[in-house]
């Protein structure tokens, strides 16, 4: 059996590569941020940089006339981002957006304290240690500032253990306080939004068919009238709308074409701007499309009535209650002895519902999710190929052995430093960019009934993908198969293997943080792809600037996992390589400023779960703490300090117990609305005379898109409601 105390496979940190990476990323960030500050002042780019404000008909802070100030880069957007208060974010963007911003603040606070400890205590302890290698051996290396410079059995390792304990207890304290603060904010936010219809509504699935009437609606009414006689108010059964969805898509497409043709007939674009002017000649007269649109509208209206007449109902219903207390009680209790019949849960917001997924039977959801889990696992495995290739570039000495022509790179001064210091993290970030979109697509196939549930699932998929590929595969790619095989054969040696790999890859992760933070956040705020497409669309196709803005929902599934990965990397290296920590402070400060700007001006907040993202973030942070402590167990073992290893195991157990306490103390209130809070909000509504009005809002809120009245521009014939509340 292999011993866990093998020597660390050292890969010295090349200062030249790190300086090359830092210089490239800082330079690119300054250029990109300067370009953004100039482009944001131009009226022609407003649909990209003020998409949210345009959609909400808000005034734009643009210069009315041309001036030199429009061409001068400024940092006013950064100062504005740090002036905004949490109350403003909570009122305008909602609690989910505030949770994301507090994650950036959390990282800033944590790594500021860690940087002080690392730079004032750990770096001097590491550098002045004489137990390790000779000073000349580190003359061109940064390993002298890391724990790798501490010799085996050195008592200085107890200083590292003390710092590990402080860091662990500090982050647990921060986590506990964040849980308390966000929980209070959640309950306050629920109370401040008492008009929300989801507080009175329960989603019921697995409704049995009424054998007498061959319908689901009467069964819903009978069941809740009998078992919830004092709180039940009304119901809405969801209808099947497959064919209507296709016709609606066609109708909106025809309407869009008609608007284009009318606009082009009034304002023909300048010939030299409209390169594709002849493309529009074959489209024809708008009247032809108007006739087609009228036929489609009539067909939609007929099918909507047929859906009701033919009882094309699904075994799903939205049930409204007379009080929040009654809805909360029904959502949190089992309604039937058969757990797949009359299953109830708190309804999502009407704008958050994925209506087509309501047609998926409950008993098939497990099958759907198993298939997507296998697909995500296969994607993770296949992604090992580009990660291994990236690490081949990063480990230039190995690359020269595998591919001798690579020695020619050394002929050009500084090129090898660029290749090993900057290029690997750039390539890796390019590959990673597409992963969140692939994961959110796979999550959409799992049958989640809400966009928020789908994106929370995508968050977890992306996070574990990044942990498996970016973190573990980047660490183990040097001898991937051998080390994975040894970890399975001798699982007790896993901490030693992990510690060895972490020590060898610290420089790569410094460059990764630089690239993802400085360059990644800068390109995020520049919106390079959208700006390029906007220019092409405006100049080539003759689209006017006042047209549609590029409005998208906030990408929680992309932001939260990537930021959590940065915290993971920083935490693992907090004691091992403290020089990484100051870069993380810059990472979180810049990220905070960027996403405040994006939330205010660019992205739309399409739903608000009242902070239900936080338990997921708490779980990701718990995983990072566990990995940090497992790594340090291996490090102390490799450094022949068994006492510190055993003590770290006790620290690990305390962390697990803390997480279990948080699950019991905080998670249930994030998942459900407490009966006490619901009753207090009902009493408040009764005192203010708003209870009946809020009940009416809830009764009329849940209409699937294909059963809503069809109303296009200039159409008044189809405005009569089709479905009335029962």
TrEMBL record:
Bilayer-crossing regions: 15-39, 110-127, 157-176, 372-394, 414-440, 461-481, 556-574, 579-597, 617-636, 643-661
Pfam families referenced in this protein's UniProt entry, alphabetically: PHM7_cyt, RSN1_7TM, RSN1_TM
Superkingdom, taxonomy of origin: Eukaryota
Residues covered by the CSC1/OSCA1-like cytosolic domain: 199-357
Segments forming domain CSC1/OSCA1-like N-terminal transmembrane: 18-178
Record flagged with keyword Ion transport: yes
Main location: membrane
Keyword Ribosomal protein: no
Subcellular location: Membrane
Keywords per UniProt: Ion channel, Ion transport, Membrane, Transmembrane, Transmembrane helix, Transport
Topological relation to the membrane, as annotated: Multi-pass membrane protein
A Gene Ontology term for the protein's cellular component: plasma membrane
PANTHER family tied to this protein: OS01G0950900 PROTEIN, PROBABLE MEMBRANE PROTEIN DUF221-RELATED
Family membership noted in the UniProt record: Belongs to the CSC1 (TC 1.A.17) family.
Protein name: CSC1-like protein At3g54510
Native source organism of the sequence: Musa troglodytarum
């Amino acid at each position: 059996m292999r011993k866990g105390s093998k020597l660390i496979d050292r890969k010295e940190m090349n200062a030249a590569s790190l300086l090359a990476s830092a210089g490239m990323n800082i330079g690119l960030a300054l250029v990109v941020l300067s370009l953004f500050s100039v482009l944001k002042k131009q009226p022609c780019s407003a649909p990209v940089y003020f998409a949210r404000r345009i959609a909400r008909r808000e005034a734009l802070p643009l210069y009315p006339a041309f001036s030199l100030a429009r061409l001068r880069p400024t940092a006013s957007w950064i100062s504005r981002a740090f002036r905004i208060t949490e109350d403003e974010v909570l009122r305008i963007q909602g609690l989910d957006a505030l949770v994301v911003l507090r994650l950036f603040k959390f990282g800033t606070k944590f790594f500021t304290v860690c940087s002080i400890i690392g730079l004032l205590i750990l770096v001097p302890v590491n550098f002045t240690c004489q137990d390790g290698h000779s000073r000349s051996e580190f003359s061109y290396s940064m390993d002298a500032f890391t724990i790798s410079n501490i010799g085996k059995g050195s008592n200085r390792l107890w200083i590292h253990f003390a710092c590990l304990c402080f860091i662990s207890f500090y982050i647990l304290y921060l986590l506990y306080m964040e849980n308390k603060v966000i929980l209070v904010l959640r309950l306050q936010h629920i109370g401040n939004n008492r008009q929300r219809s989801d507080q009175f509504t329960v989603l019921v699935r697995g409704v049995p068919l009424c054998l007498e009437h061959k319908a689901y609606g009467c069964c819903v009414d009978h069941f809740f009238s009998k078992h919830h006689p004092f709180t039940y108010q009304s119901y809405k059964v969801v209808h099947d709308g497959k064919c209507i969805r296709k016709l609606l898509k066609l109708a909106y497409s025809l309407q869009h074409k008609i608007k284009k043709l009318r606009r082009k007939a009034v304002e023909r674009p300048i010939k030299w701007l409209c390169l594709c002017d002849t493309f529009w000649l074959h489209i024809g007269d708008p009247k032809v499309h108007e006739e087609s649109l009228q036929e489609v509208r009539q067909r939609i209206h007929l099918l909507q009535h047929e859906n009701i007449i033919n009882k094309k109902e699904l075994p799903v219903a939205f049930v409204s209650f007379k009080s929040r207390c009654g809805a909360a009680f029904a959502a949190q209790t089992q309604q039937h002895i058969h757990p797949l019949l009359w299953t109830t849960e708190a309804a999502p917001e009407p704008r958050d519902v994925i209506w087509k997924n309501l047609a998926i039977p409950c008993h098939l959801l497990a099958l759907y999710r198993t298939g997507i889990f296998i697909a995500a696992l296969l994607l993770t495995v296949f992604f090992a190929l580009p990660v291994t290739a990236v690490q081949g570039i990063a480990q230039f000495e190995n690359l020269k052995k595998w591919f001798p022509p690579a020695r020619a790179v050394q002929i050009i001064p500084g090129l090898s430093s660029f290749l090993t210091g900057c290029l690997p993290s750039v390539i890796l970030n390019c590959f990673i960019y597409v992963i969140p979109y692939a994961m959110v697509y796979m999550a959409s196939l799992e049958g989640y009934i809400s966009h928020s549930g789908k994106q929370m699932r995508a968050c977890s998929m992306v996070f574990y993908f990044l942990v498996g590929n970016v973190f573990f595969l980047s660490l183990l790619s040097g001898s991937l198969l051998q080390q994975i095989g040894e970890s399975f054969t001798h699982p007790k040696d896993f901490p030693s293997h992990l510690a060895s790999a972490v020590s060898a890859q610290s420089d790569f992760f410094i460059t990764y943080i630089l690239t993802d933070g400085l360059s990644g956040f800068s390109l995020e705020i520049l919106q390079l792809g959208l700006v390029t497409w906007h220019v092409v669309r405006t100049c080539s196709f003759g689209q006017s600037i006042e047209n549609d803005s590029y409005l998208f929902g906030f990408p929680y599934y992309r932001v939260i996992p990537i930021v959590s990965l940065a915290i993971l990397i920083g935490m693992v290296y907090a004691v091992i390589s403290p020089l990484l920590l100051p870069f993380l402070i810059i990472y979180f400060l810049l990220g905070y400023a960027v996403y405040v700007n994006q939330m205010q001006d660019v992205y739309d907040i399409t739903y608000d779960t009242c902070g239900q993202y936080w338990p997921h973030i708490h779980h990701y942070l718990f995983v990072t703490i566990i990995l940090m402590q497992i790594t340090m167990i291996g490090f102390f073992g490799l450094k022949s300090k068994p006492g510190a290893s055993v003590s770290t195991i006790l620290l690990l157990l305390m962390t697990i117990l803390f997480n279990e306490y948080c699950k019991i103390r905080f998670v249930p209130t994030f998942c459900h609305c407490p009966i006490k809070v619901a009753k207090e909000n009902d009493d408040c509504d009764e005192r203010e005379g708003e209870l009946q009005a809020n009940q009416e809002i809830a009764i009329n809120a849940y209409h699937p898109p294909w059963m809503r009245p069809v109303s296009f521009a200039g159409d008044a014939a189809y405005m009569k409601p089709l479905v009335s509340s029962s």
